[in-house]
């Protein structure tokens, strides 16, 4: 049971992320570097947030559980805000890098566009955030043990896995929207991204009441995904074109071979 | 002896138009480090060499002046192409180093997490004689600092000794030393490692089979590392011996001493490579004066050679052959201008006359790789392995250290592209790694644990 839960939950939590990395990031060196650097930025933000929380806990009364829970809420909110601040800082860095790459490249365009960097940076934040949230839980899921033996929910592992998956996808979408909003100076979009991050994090405080936390989070994920899709330039027409690509290709081939015949004569 | 030992390392690169524009290898800077295994094994010195050299375009990215109208179009186009190639290959070089460093760390962390042997305390090396089992914190700190001082002095003495040997051309002694140390690693340490892995997984194994396995592994390893062999196999062996060495360090260095040693070794590295009278810098300069490659057995080289197109009948027969020594040999025979790994800067400004010759060989494209010394692999893996071993079962610390080291490596390579001379690869990575280890272990871990226990996500 241990290994099955481990592999299942790991697959749920990181399946989409792994697929995205393998198919879109792994082949390009620049994207891999953006991925790792994004993870670094997220880690620094987490470090600062943990420092603030740690200091606040040590300055407070340890016995008061309500106070501790309040401090935890405060720490989580600070962490969310710091993550967004560092996302902005990463945006600035990538913008500068983009300009630098454009200057030294042959045709004046950088080998990686800002949109691609937005996507990869969002993905990196998502992956590292998901990994940090769930890896210890996954490691514990292998070993012997009983879930919820003290009255907690027995669905801890699977809900954690689903939450992680939602978070990874959310970070990716937020990355795309955030960078686009910064580029076009649409500050209300920025505010909305930060607000939705705070909302998502706040909803997890309703755990283990999973209907109230998981379902809204997935709805938020879906909506943010659609928003990011349209921000990145997608449209219904694009989807149709993508799905009907095969037919168009064939017709082109036929035209070409039709052209070829007279030459051979 | 030297001519035998160079091959998996592709030192003589063909100096055609593309490569002469692209490759400007910074002088390699090895640093010698003693790996000190269990004392009953006797005097075994595994040298760590480090060379963060890379092949790059001669043009500095920073000073490419695109907007200058006086520059003829051809030259500026060449410059642009050069710099874009530099940048493209720059990112590629970073990934070419990320992959082996990651693999080495994965091997070390996987072993630490599964095989109990490497986290058990079974004595210490003679180079760290002071025990850390003292009751008071001050005494423990003092002992670890003393251990560090002894270890670093041993390393310095060994490095200086090696530099002197090199200066006075005692090549046979050096090669014998290197062969002996890799022999030890490939046979004895592999035997111990396999033994412990079999014990952990309760695998029944008989001595004849074990002998066969270890004999084959070790013999092929010796040949690949010191003589000729496919590049990927050589890289794999170098990663494996770095991982084995790192595991030995993780087992035999006491806790606090390990961290202080890591810090001290990065400072030593910085000084040895950058100070004018540093042993490593002197070694590099001597090698440059003599136009010789420095010992290939202790440097990880990620060079790749592609033969694209059919310039010669036998390369045609071989087809596109990647990373094999034979192709490199053929490639080298094609080109008339000799070139060496170390002193490429003066030779890589290929003048126009080589172009007519190069047009025939233009189909052949060689990409030089980046070289990183094995000592860097070892110490990166020691840091991550120690984080995995001692961070109270926590994976977050290990991952944070991993990301920190990769970013440090990335920054080091960026600085390499800017300064174009050999740089120490340890300081930035180890500093980031240490900062992240201590802060994640003490600050982030309680935060994330508290959040996880309430199933809260940030």
What does this structure look like?
The complex is a heterodimer of chains A (265) and B (458). Chain A has 265 residues and is mainly α. In chain A, 83% of the residues lie in helices and 0% in strands. Chain A is globular, with a radius of gyration of 23 Å. Chain B is mainly alpha-helical and 458 residues long. Chain B has helices spanning 17-22, 73-114, 137-167, 171-201, 207-226, 231-252, 255-274, 279-290, 313-318, 325-334, 354-361, 374-390, 395-419, 426-453, and strands at 299-301, 304-307, 364-367, 371-373. In chain B, the strands form two sheets. Chain B has a two-stranded antiparallel ribbon. A two-stranded antiparallel ribbon of chain B has the order 2-3. At the A-B interface, helix 2, helix 3, helix 4 and helix 5 of A face helix 2, helix 13 and helix 14 of B.
What is the arithmetic mean of pLDDT of chain A? 89
Q: How many strands, what sense, and barrel or not for the largest sheet of chain A? A: none
Net shape of chain B: globular
What is the share of helical residues of chain A?
Answer: over 70%
Structural class by SSE content of chain B: mainly alpha
Distance between the termini of chain B: 60 Å
- Sheet-strand content of chain A, in percent, reads under 5%
Summarize the structure.
Chain A is mainly α and 265 residues long. Chain A has helices at 2-25, 29-58, 65-104, 114-142, 156-184, 187-203, 210-231, 236-243, 245-264. By secondary structure, chain B is mainly alpha-helical.
How would the blueprint of this fold be written?
The complex is a heterodimer of chains A (265) and B (458).
Chain A: H1 2-25, H2 29-58, H3 65-104, H4 114-142, H5 156-184, H6 187-203, H7 210-231, H8 236-243, H9 245-264
Helix pairs in contact in A: 1-4, 1-5, 2-3, 2-4, 3-4, 3-6, 4-5, 5-6, 5-7
Chain B: H1 17-22, H2 73-114, H3 137-167, H4 171-201, H5 207-226, H6 231-252, H7 255-274, H8 279-290, E1 299-301, E2 304-307, H9 313-318, H10 325-334, H11 354-361, E3 364-367, E4 371-373, H12 374-390, H13 395-419, H14 426-453
Antiparallel strand pairs in B: 1-4, 2-3
Helix pairs in contact in B: 2-6, 2-12, 2-13, 3-7, 3-8, 4-5, 6-12, 7-12, 7-14, 12-13, 12-14, 13-14
């Amino acid at each position: 049971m241990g290994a099955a839960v481990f592999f299942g939950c790991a697959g749920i939590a990181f399946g989409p992320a792994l697929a995205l990395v393998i198919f879109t990031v792994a082949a390009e060196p620049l994207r891999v570097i953006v991925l790792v650097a994004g993870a670094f930025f997220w880690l620094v933000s987490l470090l600062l947030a943990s420092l603030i929380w740690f200091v606040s806990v040590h300055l407070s009364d340890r016995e008061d559980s309500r106070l501790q829970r309040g401090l935890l809420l405060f720490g989580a909110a600070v962490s969310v805000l710091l993550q967004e601040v560092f996302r902005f800082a990463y945006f600035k860095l990538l913008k500068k890098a983009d300009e630098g790459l454009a200057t030294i490249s042959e045709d004046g365009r950088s080998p990686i566009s800002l949109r691609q960097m937005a996507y990869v940076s969002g993905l990196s934040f998502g992956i590292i955030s998901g990994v940090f949230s769930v890896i210890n839980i996954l490691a514990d899921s292998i070993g012997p043990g009983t879930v919820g033996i003290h009255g907690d929910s027995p669905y801890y592992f699977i809900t954690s896995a689903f939450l992680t998956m939602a978070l990874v996808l959310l970070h990716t979408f937020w990355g795309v929207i955030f960078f686009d909003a910064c580029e076009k100076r649409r500050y209300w979009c920025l505010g909305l991204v930060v607000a939705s991050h705070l909302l998502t994090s706040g909803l997890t405080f309703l755990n283990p009441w999973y209907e109230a936390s998981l379902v809204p989070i997935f709805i938020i994920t879906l909506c943010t995904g659609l928003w990011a899709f349209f921000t990145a330039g997608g449209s219904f027409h694009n989807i149709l074109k993508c799905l009907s690509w095969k037919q168009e290709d064939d017709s082109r081939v036929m035209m070409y071979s039709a052209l070829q015949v007279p030459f051979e004569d | 002896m030297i001519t035998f030992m160079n091959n998996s390392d592709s030192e003589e690169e063909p100096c055609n138009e593309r490569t002469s524009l692209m490759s400007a290898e910074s002088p390699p800077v090895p640093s010698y480090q003693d790996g000190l295994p269990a004392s009953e094994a006797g005097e075994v010195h595994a040298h760590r060499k480090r060379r963060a050299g890379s092949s790059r375009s001669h043009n500095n990215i920073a000073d490419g002046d695109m907007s200058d109208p006086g520059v003829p179009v051809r030259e500026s186009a060449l410059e642009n192409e050069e710099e874009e190639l530099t940048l493209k290959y720059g990112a590629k070089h970073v990934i070419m180093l990320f992959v082996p460093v990651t693999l080495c760390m994965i091997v070390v962390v996987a072993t630490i997490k599964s095989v109990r042997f490497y986290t058990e305390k079974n004595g210490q090396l003679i180079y760290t004689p002071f025990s850390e089992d003292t009751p008071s914190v001050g005494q423990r700190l003092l002992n670890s600092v003393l251990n560090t001082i002894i270890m670093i002095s041993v390393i310095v003495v060994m490095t200086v000794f090696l530099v002197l040997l090199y200066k006075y051309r005692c090549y046979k002694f050096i090669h014998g030393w290197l062969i002996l140390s890799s022999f030890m690693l490939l046979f004895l340490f592999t035997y111990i490692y396999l033994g412990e892995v079999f014990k952990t997984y309760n695998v029944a194994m008989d001595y004849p089979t074990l002998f066969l396995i270890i004999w084959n592994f070790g013999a092929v390893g010796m040949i690949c590392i010191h003589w000729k062999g496919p590049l990927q196999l050589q890289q794999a062996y170098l990663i494996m011996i770095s991982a084995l060495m790192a595991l030995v360090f993780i087992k035999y260095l006491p806790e606090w001493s390990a961290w202080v040693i890591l810090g001290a070794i990065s400072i030593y590295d910085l000084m040895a490579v950058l100070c004018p009278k540093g042993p490593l810098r002197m070694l590099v300069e001597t090698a440059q004066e003599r136009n010789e490659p420095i010992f290939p057995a202790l440097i990880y080289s990620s060079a790749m050679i592609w033969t694209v197109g059919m310039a010669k009948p036998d390369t045609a027969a071989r087809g596109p052959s990647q990373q094999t020594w034979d192709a490199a040999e053929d490639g080298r025979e094609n080109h008339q201008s000799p070139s060496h790994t170390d002193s490429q800067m003066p030779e890589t400004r290929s003048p126009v006359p080589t172009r007519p010759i190069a047009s025939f060989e233009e189909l052949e494209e060689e990409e030089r790789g980046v070289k990183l010394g094995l000592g860097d692999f070892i110490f990166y893996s020691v840091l991550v392995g120690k984080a995995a071993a001692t961070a109270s079962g926590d994976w977050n610390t290990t991952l944070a250290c991993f990301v920190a080291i990769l970013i440090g490596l990335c920054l080091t390579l960026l600085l390499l592209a800017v300064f174009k001379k050999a740089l120490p690869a340890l300081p930035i990575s180890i500093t980031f790694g240490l900062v992240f280890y201590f802060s994640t272990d003490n600050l982030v871990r309680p935060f994330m644990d508290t959040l996880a226990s309430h199933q809260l996500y940030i």
